[in-house]
Amino acid sequence: METVKKMAILADSAKYDVSCSSSGSNRKNSGGVGNGALSGICHSWSEDGRCISLLKTLYTNNCVYDCAYCINRISNDIPRASFTPRELADLTIDFYRRNYIEGLFLSSGVYPNPDKTMENLIETMEILRKEYKFFGYIHVKAIPGADPLLINKAGMLADRMSVNIELPSEKSLRLLAPQKSKEKIFKPMAQITQGLMQIGEEKGKYRFSQKFVPAGQSTQMIVGATNDTDLSIISLSQGLYDNFKLKRVYYSAYVPVNEGPNLPALIQAPPMKRENRLYQADWLLRFYGFKASELLDQDNQNFDMDLDPKCDWAIRHFDFFPVEINKASYNEILRVPGIGVKSAKKIIKMRKFGKIDFLGLKKLGVVLKRAKYFITCNGRYSEGLYIYPENLRNRLIQKKPADMQIKIFQESGL
Ligand code: SF4
Predict the structure, then answer these.
(1) Are 313 and 282 in a shared domain?
(2) Which atom of ligand 1 is closest in space to residue 61's alpha carbon?
């Protein structure tokens, strides 16, 4: 089969994997082509908001596993293709030289077994790095079940690695991906974490240390294919950030591509809003000091679809407010809906020069639309504002014009 045809099949097969982002790597060019400096034909967003282009493909869409939710599962009758390491490396370098891409996101079906799959991915990277002297960004999958030596070798060549958890609980894995297990997934994850820590220690001791997954590791979870609650998903994410030092957890709204007794109906639309809420909550875990157990609990196991998680938390913990802008700590100010990291830092800085009032907050660029209900300046709420906690929820739920139009159409039966 021609490489172009293979490319069409394998790039299409890779589109359901969202765990790529190329930020955070700093692989310097030392006489070859490409440069992985803090930026990474898919478009992906880096952590600092830049759009970067990656060649996103599978090495093969053959797979010996039968994960119920996956288009590439062995039981599906779909066109199959595989690259050779040489073909894929040549294609990458060709795309790079034509300026189509800045890096490679390389995943694969498991074929014929985890070790051989990992070996193929490594060989591709070796051709790129050693023969073509390609110093651009490479994100590669760690295949659960592969020999730890192979995982280690891949880590020396890649900028980022990811092991996809896919489903948030052992029970869900048994139901939809019985050939996978939590243990098999966590093992390479733990190994990558250990490798990263070791390299970190060596950096402190030696002038030159080897590179090992310099942009860290990430994972992906499918949302909505099983009954797992947002609480269990976000609790797992927190555990991954705390224990495995993951850079990112990606959430992928379940896209029905197969039929099966354990799967949601094929016509069901992907739960995009839920995916968005999880990303917002994930942000709160990583940058705002929230714990999963604060955002949700046994009585509220799923995020409110009308209110973002920070607003929802604030309304449920109204006794925490108001936060006095001139006295509160940075962490307390960060908990105010509508105030982000940048604004909180500006407030702390400006307080050194005198008391801040609402006008001063506006001048600092703080958006008061939501924040005003939760703060005081010099002991006072914003002028003319009356707080009725029981109505606050309705005031904060902002229906976008598009949402309202849909509602009007639904209600009128049009
Ligand atoms: S192992 Fe990966 S490629 Fe294979 S069926 Fe499962 S999800 Fe799909």
Answers:
(1) no
(2) 3
CB 222 within 8 A of CB 236: no
Model pLDDT, residue 249: 95
Non-local CB neighbours of 77 within 8 Å, separated by 6+ positions: none
Confirm whether 249 is domain-assigned: yes
Residue ranges lining ligand 1, Cβ < 6 Å: 63, 65, 67, 70, 72-73, 109-110, 177
Query: Tokens 């929230």, residue?
Result: 290
pLDDT of amino acid 268: 73
Same domain, 215 and 265: yes
End-to-end CA distance of the chain: 49
Non-local (6+) Cβ contacts of 201 within 8 A are: none
Point out the residues of the chain with pLDDT beneath 70: 17-52, 204, 206-209, 266-267, 398-414
Q: How many CA atoms lie within 13 A of 137 on its CB side?
A: 28
Residue nearest to atom 3 of ligand 1 (CA): 109
Please give the model's pTM, rounded to 2 decimal places: 0.85
**Which residue matches tokens 């008391």?**
355
